[in-house]
Amino acid sequence: MDDKLDEVIKKYPVIVKSRRRIRGAVLLDTDKGIYMAKIYTASRKRLLFEEEVKAALTNAGYVNVDYAVKNIDGGLLTDDGSGNKWLVKKWYNGTECDIKDVRKVMLASSNMAVIHKLMVIGSTDDTQALVKSNKLDIESLFLRHNKEIKRVHSYIREKRQKNEMEICLLNSYRNFSGQGIMAEEFLKESGFKSLCNEAISQGRVLHGSYNYHNIILSGEQVVTTNFEKADIGLQIIDLYDFTRKVMEKNSWNMEIGINVIEAYRKERELGSEERKVLYALLLYPEKYWKLVNFYYNGKKSWMSAKNYEKLKRICSQEQERHKFLKEVKRLLI
């Protein structure tokens, strides 16, 4: 890989002083700052969309993004002579967001609201072609997942011999399946379809992977990176994903979760429909469904100790999660 990367670096007007490997990429310390180089496997059309989103941010004054650096020929991708296409991006000194530090997660949540206001690129034939309707149809997703939970419950119930995880899934079924049904019904009444139509017509973009790995903190500055999963769609999904992951890592501490949501709302207030969709998403027992899915699609002849521990953990956190959901509903609905 080093020889291939050397060929790529020759096509950029920089002097590399040092390099080091990170997850799936190489960091380059150059005379013009820090760059990150990686093999790019998606389409050129996809890359142009990502850069269009970043351009919308930088043109609006938000410059802390990992924009692609052009090579000496003016291209965004560089061939290494072996058929690989490399992407070189601007990178930054700093640390990933500490998901257990309340002040830092609030900074990250506030930053999310800022980029959401700016990530509006309008509607064109190209952006319309990128719309993934299956990602927008949360109602069908809830319905599908609820059917799977019910089907797995029936399957386990009919088994003569049950292991510890299967018994735990049976015992927790009533609680979590009830939440899934309530979330589905609540979503139907939320007006989320009008939000979807608005997102498409305005070209509103969600980051798609707004987590602590992709948020770099440098002092009080927040840098947003890795837009590979950005899509036109419901931006509120970013807030849901971030809030849920923060809460899972902090044992559903109600105060932390409320701070995350309120930090976002200080920068970008949520409309009535968005608040209802956010509550429905948080109410849905996604972690439980994932464990049900892993169980059903895995080997039934042995029990995954890791997944069993995860199941016991989410069951033990239910009391705190219920407190959080009750407070969220009071604040948002």
Describe the fold and architecture:
- Helices cover 56% and strands 13% of the residues.
- With 333 residues, the chain is of the alpha+beta class.
- A five-stranded antiparallel β-sheet has the order 1-2-3-5-4. The protein has a three-stranded antiparallel β-sheet with strand order 6-8-9, covered by helices on one side.
- Strand 8 and strand 9 (221-224) form a beta hairpin.
Could you give a quick summary of the protein structure above?
With 333 residues, the protein is α+β, with helices and mostly antiparallel strands. The protein has 14 helices and ten strands. It is globular.
SS content category: alpha+beta
Task: Give the assembly state of these chains.
Answer: single chain
How much helix, percentage-wise, in residues?
Answer: 55-70%
* Distinct helical segment count: 14
Mean pLDDT: 93
Q: How many angstroms does the end-to-end distance come to?
A: 53 Å
Total strands: 10
Shape verdict:
globular
Percent of residues in β-strands: 5-15%
Topology diagram in text:
Layout: H1 2-9, E1 16-22, E2 25-30, E3 33-39, H2 44-59, E4 77-79, E5 85-90, E6 95-96, H3 102-118, H4 125-130, H5 133-136, H6 138-158, H7 164-188, H8 192-202, E7 205-206, E8 215-218, E9 221-224, E10 231-232, H9 236-249, H10 254-267, H11 272-283, H12 286-297, H13 305-316, H14 318-332
Antiparallel strand pairs: 1-2, 2-3, 3-5, 4-5, 6-8, 7-10, 8-9
Helix pairs in contact: 3-10, 6-7, 6-12, 7-11, 7-13, 9-10, 9-11, 10-14, 11-14, 12-13
